[in-house]
Design brief:
heterotetramer, A: alpha/beta, Rossmann fold, 2 domains, 9 helices, B: alpha+beta, Dna Ligase, domain 1, six-stranded antiparallel beta sheet, four-stranded antiparallel beta sheet, 34% helix
């Protein structure tokens, strides 16, 4: 098992004729992912990297049975593309783009929930269930199949940490980038619940940062009865308060947003909390041994 | 003309009080009828009934405690206050204008805001029966998790308020106002609309005595007012920062000796943290991931080369969609073309990392295998840690 | 200053072209970069590249056919066109200003609008691959029934367009634009946002060459721009009409001899129709139901007494929430106080009609049992039908 | 039978402490309507005209079983009040007020439909099922129980015509004011369908006007197989084009909006169409005899 994505997932890439769409069509297929369709309005009938292109997601679903979507369209069209996917019956929609108005992220999240579907994004590299399927643009060599479920608010940091896990022999069930914006689709609490229910996941690694409240949701989970072992990294130790560190969500506005407060809360909840990236693998080893 | 100058940090999409009040008034919120002046002499042109409040227009927090709001009993006092405030700085920020308003006699001060909140998956309404400058220290405000704007229900907010606000008329006023603020936030792409204090007048009316409105900078494509705020802000930023903003580079200038060029917010912070732990100080948060092009990287180098505090440049990138062999070629070109002497340390990894590694090596440049190794090397070149 | 003057009828919340274009631009729609002038001499102050379009700013329809848009090849021609247009009237309406814009070379002209539609239970998007002044005569536009704004789906509109618009790039541009216009309509309380013509340029870009935006006057409480449009419009209305508008009376002046004071839109039209069938002409549509007070009725009487064309006043009210015995007492007072000689005919019915009847009779006033009877009596007093 | 409202309907008046609320509490009860509750925020525990007042509709429903609501609040609060009623499980909501932003009417209509409830309004006197119950402020003496279903876009005109029907011995099953705004809750097509399904309704009278398309929906119904007899009045014969005649919807914008076009379309659909109010009862008599 794994969460959200596995080797049965059938992928449609919305915006497949663009640069990122073409790259992912090639890259995902190379990873063994079942990329069954692409869409590009008005360009149905083409092929991109051997993948058939349709004019609408509904057609793609009807013709190919696609159930998961990776959306590469500019921010002003993103809400429309995500709504199209959901209405066509897609169960997992990933929107990796950044620069999305938060009001549109709110609508995407609400629309996915109303349909009982999963939305991942915005501002994320996507997710990968190593050895099974990839739905995003993370570097494949960083990952290896195993029992660690990884949740990350940051893209590059998840590559870095996954690479360290892989090098340490600690494979991953699924690595999901939940994104750096304050309002997201699948959030930390929801991703944790999915990993909790996944038999293949033995322990959870959470990669957080200053700002926002996701880390407190994680602490709440870790405190509960029967929680799986959790290790966490919080970055932003050296970031001054009151300034947005790249991510819209990474801003120390109140005391609870700070690095120290989050580390303290996580430790109080028995999370193996790393203060820097160097400490994460050792912290996790303390929980799960050598994997 | 009316934007603040100075070196303080502030969000480009945080509206000044007078701009926020103008927006509030336009959606039906009652605000004092103020006038904006840029110099003491302009007070003579206003028809005012005294006393008035004279308020420095700055974005920095804590203006009230820092003396940025002055009560003036007559024209002479008002002029003196304007002159003094225009010559003052608040957290490093000099006001570009001063707002002069009738002094409103409040029975009570409340706090009301609508803001984006990840936990709510959208908007929350926050209300406190005690507003004013002491809001931060008091009990946490009442909280109504709305989520998507269409999910707002006046009767839910009413129930939440019932616990803490005994005056039914005030409750109803707050409910109506919250609806207006939420509509404003949703229709005009605001991430925060905060009224603190919200005055309750003797006759029960609610008046917004201050306004803190933050727009969503990513909505500039569909809101000209936001685009104008950003453009106006850029005009007043130091040149280096303006160029970075225009190029899509995320820059937060700090005051350290390690000039970090990085990719991705989390990864950038992770590198900054390692620098700090090694006893160093990063010179900046500089995330190039939104513009991983030769021009973007060249601009980053220019910025750090010209900063006299920077002793070493550390390039740390772990690319996913960014093809690292291309980044390596860009780095080779930049290094070959530069005349400055500041040492450069590389740690490139990610998609096509092996080719990147080879490219650097072929041109005599080291590529560190780990972030820790790269940070240690940079620290050594900068002259060691603490 | 910039509102049209004259006697033509127009909606107070229909924005002039330049106002509409400013609003369109603010939400990200491309429009020509025009300038507004009020006199020929002002053309000298503009930096223009010729040819330009010189466009009278009026609300009346059919401006293009009536010569309200002039192409000018140089400054002299532009000045002459401004002078001529400022001196012209369009359907009785004199322009208060003239818009001067670069002349845009269109490959094609489309039609695009978002408008409120009862059948759709909300908004519809209308698109025609052939726009311009001839839109009314051509095939009906493609229609996408959206309903509530949240129900908009770009892919549905795309499907609808596929049937009639062969150019995929144009289709995508129209879909994006429709989304922006719908957002504008929903967030800024517009009942119609129409672009006709919508120019397709050679490189495929879409430019709004005209703009017709109608706001929702009932949303003035939450939109200061709408409140300002209404206030500005009132300033330019004849005094009598302004007073009615301010009092909440619904007045449409006509040119007849039967001065009808009525309540309820349908009932007022029903009475007008009976007057017309009897060979008479109503002097107005005047619905007092929103302000059934002594002041409202007195104003109505004043209006009709002072109109020299009115020969008889017919008061026809069938009240529900309006208590008719109170109306009767008001009528008795008004009749007792008036000095004018115009005859008055009453037909009051509805809630507490019997008491109303008695009140009128006690003061020597007739109350007609039927509308037909009242109309016949009024016609007789006015000097008969045709 | 009747439509929407009958003697089992249990009414809550929202805003019962206001002038119109008090009037209707008295007036509806006098008509024999089961007014079981009123609401006024923060004023639960009061009584108005013998009716208990609650602070919320949910409380009123829980305590009294109210299923239908008459909403008297100002336009800026109307959407909130209607949403409150719908969320509390009210099945029929009447908002009589005028001056409502059309965007809010759109939301009210959508919200009612999403819950399978009926919304009547805005800008309407409400509805009455004569001899059973009244949910609005029409003058009671105008009505008498019978088999004519009446639909009206205009308030006063519906009193006038109902009075004429009653005087002519033609009683009514239900008289519903659908309102004069372009976007409404129950519209002409929906009201007609309800009357069609109502065994007590033998014939339908429709009171329309210039502008809008409701009359064409009516014609479509009348043309269909098994339609009940329909008589209609269209007012606005003497109204000039391009001007809004009081009602937001009453404006001749295109040829189809005109009096002549509507009369012609109705007649072509075998509707007994009256050109003036004087002709309506005779036209109806032609269809149903002396009632």
């Amino acid at each position: 098992m794994s969460i959200l994505l596995d080797d049965k997932s059938a992928i449609v890439i919305q915006g497949i004729t663009g640069k990122m769409g073409r790259f992912s069509a090639r890259d995902l297929t190379a990873y063994g992912t079942r990329v069954v369709a692409g869409t590009a309005p008005g360009r149905g009938g083409l092929e991109v990297e051997g993948t058939p292109v349709f004019s609408s997601v509904a057609e793609a679903v009807a013709e190919t049975g696609a159930d998961s979507s990776l959306v590469y369209v500019p921010a002003p069209s993103a809400l429309d593309a995500v709504l199209e996917a959901l209405e066509a019956g897609i169960r997992l929609v990933v929107y990796p783009g950044d620069g999305l108005p938060v009001a549109d992220a709110v609508e995407m999240r609400a629309a996915a929930r109303a349909r009982g579907a999963a939305f991942v994004g915005p501002n994320t590299p996507g997710l990968i269930s190593p050895g099974k399927a990839k739905l995003g643009f993370m570097p494949s060599f960083c990952y290896r199949r195993g029992g660690i479920g990884v949740i990350s608010r940051s893209g590059s940091l998840s590559y870095e940490v996954s690479h360290r896990l892989t090098q340490a022999g600690l494979g991953q069930s699924t690595v999901v980038g939940i994104g750096g914006d304050p309002v997201k689709g699948v959030n930390a609490a929801e991703a944790v619940a999915m990993f909790d229910a996944d038999p293949e996941t033995a322990a959870i690694v959470y990669l957080g940062e200053i700002g926002g409240g996701d880390e407190y949701d994680l602490a709440r989970y870790a405190q509960g009865p029967g929680a799986k072992p959790v290790a966490a990294l919080v970055v932003g130790l050296a970031s001054p308060p009151g300034r947005k560190m790249g991510h819209a969500g990474a801003l120390i506005g109140s005391r609870a947003d700070s690095h120290a407060a989050k580390i303290a809360a996580l430790r109080a909840a028995s999370v193996a909390a790393a203060e820097t990236v160097s400490e994460l693998v050792p912290a996790l080893r303390g929980l799960v041994g050598t994997g | 003309m009316t934007r603040p100058r100075g070196r303080a940090f502030y969000s480009p999409v945080l509206m000044l009080e007078y701009e926020g009040k103008r927006l509030l008034r336009s959606v039906g919120v009652r605000v004092p009828e103020g006038a904006l002046v840029g110099a003491a002499a302009e007070v003579d042109g206003l028809s005012l009934s005294y006393p008035v409040a004279v308020k420095a227009q700055v974005r920095s927090g804590g203006r009230g405690k820092a003396g940025g709001v002055v009560r003036a009993e007559d024209a002479g006092a008002a002029k003196a206050a304007v002159a003094r405030l225009m010559a003052s700085a608040f957290d490093g920020e000099r006001p570009a204008s001063v707002l002069v308003e009738p002094w409103v006699a409040a029975e009570r001060e409340l706090y009301l805001s609508v803001t984006v909140d990840g936990g709510a998956g959208g908007f929350v309404v926050l209300v406190s029966p005690r507003g004013g400058v002491e809001i931060e220290g008091g009990a946490p405000p009442l909280r109504y998790d709305v989520g998507a704007p269409a999910a707002f229900r006046a009767h839910r907010l009413r129930e939440i308020l019932a616990a803490a606000e005994p005056d039914a008329a005030v409750r109803e006023g707050v409910v109506r106002l919250a609806r207006l603020l939420l509509r404003l936030a949703a229709t005009r792409d605001c991430t925060t609309v905060e009224i603190n204090p919200l005055f309750v007048l003797a006759e029960g009316a609610l008046v917004a005595a201050d306004a803190k409105i933050v727009r969503d900078e990513w909505a500039a494509f569909r809101d000209g007012e936001i685009a104008a705020l950003i453009a106006e802000d850029r005009r007043h930023r130091p040149e280096a920062i303006r160029r970075c903003l225009e190029a899509g580079l995320m820059l937060v200038p700090l005051e350290g000796e390690i000039g970090l060029i990085s990719g991705g917010a989390g990864m950038t912070m992770a590198a900054m943290d390692l620098i700090a732990r090694a006893g160093g100080r990063p010179a900046c948060f500089l995330d190039c991931s939104a513009n991983p092009t030769p021009a973007g990287y060249r601009l980053s180098f220019d910025l750090l080369e010209s900063d006299p505090g920077v002793k070493v440049i550390l390039v740390s990138i772990f690319g996913g969609a960014t093809q690292m062999e291309r980044v390596a070629r860009v780095m080779v070109d930049i290094v070959a073309a530069r005349t400055a002497r500041k040492p450069v340390v590389f740690r490139l990894n990610g998609t096509n990392a092996e080719e990147a590694d080879e490219t650097l090596k072929r041109h005599g440049l080291d590529n560190h295998a780990t972030l820790e190794g790269a940070v240690a090397a940079a620290m050594a070149l900068a002259g060691g840690g603490r």
